[in-house]
Amino acid sequence: MNKKSRYLSLWLALTVVAAAQVQSQEKKKKLEDEHRTVAQVLDRSVSNADHEFTEAADAMPEDKFAFAPTNGEFKGVRNFGEQIKHVAAVNYIFGAAILGEKVPVDVGGENGPALLKTKSEIMGYLKDSFVYVHKAVQSINEKNLAQPIKSPFGEGKVTRLGLATSVCSHAFDHYGQMVEYLRMNGIIPPASR
Fold first, then answer.
1. pLDDT digits (tens, 9 = 90+) for 11-50
2. Cα dihedral sign for 57, 59, 65, 69?
3. Same domain, yes or no, for 29 and 56?
4. I need a labelling partner for 40 at 20 to 30 A (CA). Which of 13, 151, 168, 186 fits?
5. How many Å apart are CA 90 and CA 151, to the nearest integer?
6. Do residues 18 and 46 share a domain?
7. What is the DSSP string of 19-75?
8. Is there a single domain that holds both residue 11 and residue 63?
9. Which residues 6+ apart lie within 8 Å of 68 measured at CB?
10. Nearest CA among 73, 80, 94 for reference residue 170
11. Which DSSP string do the residues of 154-192 spell out, in sequence order?
């Protein structure tokens, strides 16, 4: 075998080995994707809600955090900043119930702490609430997801699975309201850009 043939054979062997490694890694990733845990599935949903809600919250300028619509049937609605504090407070309430522990911060009922006024304070509270609710959701497993636990709102019994899905539905309910507030102020929500 001449030098050229040896190099060609070596190149071919390396190509086959590299292709086999890539194929093996793709197969491993596919198996991991097919065999997600309950916590991984729920956490992915919470991550989606966290991402959309937090970006929408951050899109509003600080001077508009006190905005609430006044034209039409909007008497008594929460302003933009209050929407965010409310979702954050409920995240903490749901998270504590899932973990079976006392709420770790002041939630001001379900309205959020009255002392939080600035965009920076409110956004920090929101982000911390999602960190906490991620921790809670990651504690859910096949054994505890459907076990009855006390409702954090005194409505009898609920399940961790039910609370985890409520985190997302609750955030997206208020996200829809926040999108209206953003658009009323001439701001295109980040998800629509």
1. 666 676 677 777 767 766 666 667 899 999 999 999 999 9
2. negative
3. no
4. 151
5. 12
6. no
7. HHHHHHHHHHHHHHHHT--HHHHHHHHHHHHHHHHHHHHHHS-GGGTT----SSS-T
8. no
9. 74, 77, 78, 79, 80, 82, 181
10. 94
11. SSSEEEHHHHHHHHHHHHHHHHHHHHHHHHHTT---GGG
First to last CA, the chain: 61
181 burial via Cβ count (<10 Å: 0-12, 13-18, 19+): buried
Residue 35 sits at φ, ψ, to 5 deg, of -120, 55
Give the span between the Cα atoms of 68 and 75, in whole angstroms. Answer: 9
Looking at the fold, whether 70 and 1 belong to one and the same domain comes out as: no
pLDDT digits (tens, 9 = 90+) for 153-179: 987 999 999 999 999 999 999 999 999
Tell me, yes or no, whether 72 and 148 share the same domain.
yes
55 and 106 assigned to the same domain: yes
Q: Is the distance from CB of 122 to CB of 85 less than 8 angstroms?
A: yes
Residue ranges making up the domain that contains 152: 36-192
Q: What is the rounded average pLDDT for all residues in the chain?
A: 91
Pairwise CA distance, residues 177 & 184, whole Å = 11
Q: What share of the chain is helix, strand, coil (3-state, %, to 5)?
A: 65, 5, 35
3 and 78 both lie in a single domain: no
State pLDDT tens for residues 102-143: 999 999 989 999 999 999 999 999 999 999 999 999 999 999
* Whether residue 88 is found in the same domain as residue 139: yes
To the question of pTM greater than 0.90 for the whole model, the response is: no
